[in-house]
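pipeline stage [seq->struct] | target=MBL fold metallo-hydrolase | organism=Nonomuraea phyllanthi | residues=341
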Amino acid sequence: MSRASRRRPYSEQRPQDLGGGVWSVPVPIPGNPLGYTLVYAVESPQGPVLVDAGWNHPDAWEALSGGLAALGFDVGAVKGVVVTHFHPDHAGLAGQVRERSGAWVAMHEADAALVRLMHDHPADDQRSFQAEMLRRAGADPGEVRQAVSRPAPPARPDRELRDGDLVDLPGRKLRAVHTPGHTPGHICLHLEDADRLFTGDHVLPDITPHIGIYPYDRDDVDPLGDFLDSLDRVGELGSLDALPAHEWIFPDVAARAAEIRHHHEEKLVRLRALLARRPHPQTIWEVAAMMTWNRPWADLSPMLRGMAAGEAAAHLRALEARGEVRRVPGVDLVRFQALDS
C-alpha cells in the first residue's frame, strides 16, 4: 500500500491497543492540516506514562481524556508526561494533565531552556524579535506584520532529560535519545524492552519535519546538520518499529531515516545550484522564494512564508558549514552566494 493511501482524516482515527502495554490516542489539532497528534500511553504499575499530550484546546482535551477512558484509563491516574519537544501540538496539554493527575512533565534540557525563555519574556518582546528577524531576512513590511505570531508557551517541565537517560517508568526501559534538528531538544524514546521507537516529529512515514533556524541569520548553530546526524544515529538503532507523533505507525525506522537524509542531501544540491546561477548574492527571503515547497510561493500565507524562510536559512547555514556558500554581510541585510567548486 502506498504511503499516500494510508493517510486518514482525524474523523476516522480511534484509540488503539498496540499490544505490549502500549496504546495510542489520536488528539486533534484544530485548524491544522496535520489533523492530529498521536499521543501514546505506556503501561506502568503506578499509572500510565504519556508520550506527548496534544494541543491545548477543549476539543483536544476531550479527545485525550475520552480516548484514555475508552482504553480503560482515567486521565487522573497518569503518572507522567514525556514531551518529545516543546511545540504546542506535543506539549500543549501537558500542564492540564499535570493539574488533573499530579503527573510530572519531562522534556530535554535544551527545550526546557527555551520554554523558560518563552515564559520569561513578554509577548510584545517576542513579536518585536520576530519582526526584526523577518525584516533582516528581506521580507517586506506588509509580510512582516502578517507573519508575526506568538502561541502561548507550554507548561514548564518538572524534570529535564539528557541523552541516554531512562524515563521514570518502573518495569520498563524507556530511554531518551537526543535527536536535535526539529527543535534543539527534540528526543526520540527507545522502548528497549519491546524494540519500539517513539519518534515524535523526527522520523515520520510520509512527510519530513520542519527544520528551521531562528533567528534566520545565526551563524553559531547548524540545525540541519544536527538533524542529519540525528537521522544517522536513529539508523544505527536498527530496523525498529516506529511510533511517530503524526500519520501512522510503520516498520523499519532506519530505512525511513535514510530516505529523509537523502531527501535533504538532494535539496542541498539543488539549492547550491540555484545560488550558483545567480550573479548577485541573495537574501534569505529571495532564496526561500526560489525553492520548491508543497505549493507555489505566491500561494503561501505570510506565516508559511516565514516558516519557509526559516527552512531556507537552515539549508543555507548547512551549506555554509560545508564551505559551499558564504554569507555577504551588509549594512542591514545578510545575503548568501555560492562559492566556486
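stage status: PASS
auto-comment: The longest helix spans residues 253-276. The chain is about 40% helix and 15% strand.
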